[in-house]
């Protein structure tokens, strides 16, 4: 399972909770959506963070130390 699939399922659960008239089912859909989002975050968390940090490091020019003028 990949994070994209889990996020799609979470989105469907959110939508179902909005359209549901049964209060118990509505809460279960919300709970499932939260769990699916958390699992997706766990799957891509470190890799996504590392990729974002690497992009930031590459785009920022090296300035050296403040006293090296």
Helix and strand arrangement:
Layout: H1 3-19, H2 23-59
Structure description:
The chain is mainly alpha-helical and 69 residues long. The mean pLDDT is 81. It has a domain at 3-45. The chain has two helices and no strands. Helix content is 78%, strand content 0%. It starts with a helix and ends in a 10-residue tail after the last helix. It has helices at 3-19, 23-59.
Task: Summarize the model shown.
This protein is an all-alpha fold and 69 residues long. Helix content is 78%, strand content 0%.
Helix content: over 70%
Tally of helical segments: 2
H and E string: HH
- What integer is the average pLDDT? 81
> What would you call the shape?
elongated
Distance between the termini: 52 Å
Tell me how many strands there are: 0
Report the radius of gyration as a whole number of Å: 20 Å
Low-confidence stretches: none
Largest β sheet strand count, sense and barrel closure: none
Strand content: under 5%
What would you call the structural class? mainly alpha
Oligomer: single chain
């Amino acid at each position: 399972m990949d994070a994209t699939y889990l996020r799609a399922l979470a989105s469907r659960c959110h939508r179902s909770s909005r359209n549901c008239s049964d209060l118990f089912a509505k809460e279960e859909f919300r709970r499932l959506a939260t769990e699916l989002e958390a699992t997706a975050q766990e799957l891509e968390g470190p890799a996504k963070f590392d990729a974002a940090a690497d992009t930031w490091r590459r785009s920022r020019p090296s300035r050296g130390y403040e006293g090296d003028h």
